[in-house]
Amino acid sequence: MPRSVNAVASRRRRKRILKLARGYWGSRSKVYTIAKNTVEKGLQYAFRDRKVKKREFRALWIQRINAATREHGMSYSQFIGKVGAKNIGLNRKVLADLAMNDPKAFAAIVEAVK
């Protein structure tokens, strides 16, 4: 009985990896074994950085709110504490957007909190 190899599935698997490796430099996009390692590492980074992106955006929002509240003579921590105490239902993302794009509305929120 002849030896059975599933060349169709093997080729499909290799083509999928090489397609993901398009745009990589040199043998990272040409040689299967090297491309496989590079693609696996890239997918690890992608998984990790989907979580890191959320942290980085929260930090950016906090910096923007802090800068805007200091213009009104208040620190970030005081502002957020008073926003929570007054039950103002705006999250940091919305507050940062207001601070950047609508300073008058943000000033009204700061006055309401004071």
From TrEMBL:
Family, as annotated: Belongs to the bacterial ribosomal protein bL20 family.
One of the GO biological process terms: translation
HAMAP family (alphabetical): Ribosomal_bL20
A cellular component term, taken from the record's GO annotations: ribonucleoprotein complex
Keywords: Ribonucleoprotein, Ribosomal protein, RNA-binding, rRNA-binding
The keyword Ribosomal protein is annotated on this UniProt entry: yes
GO molecular function, one term: rRNA binding
A Pfam family reported for this protein in Swiss-Prot or TrEMBL: Ribosomal_L20
Function text: Binds directly to 23S ribosomal RNA and is necessary for the in vitro assembly process of the 50S ribosomal subunit. It is not involved in the protein synthesizing functions of that subunit.
PANTHER family (alphabetical): 39S RIBOSOMAL PROTEIN L20
Keyword rRNA-binding: yes
Identification of the protein by name: Large ribosomal subunit protein bL20
Gene name as annotated: rplT
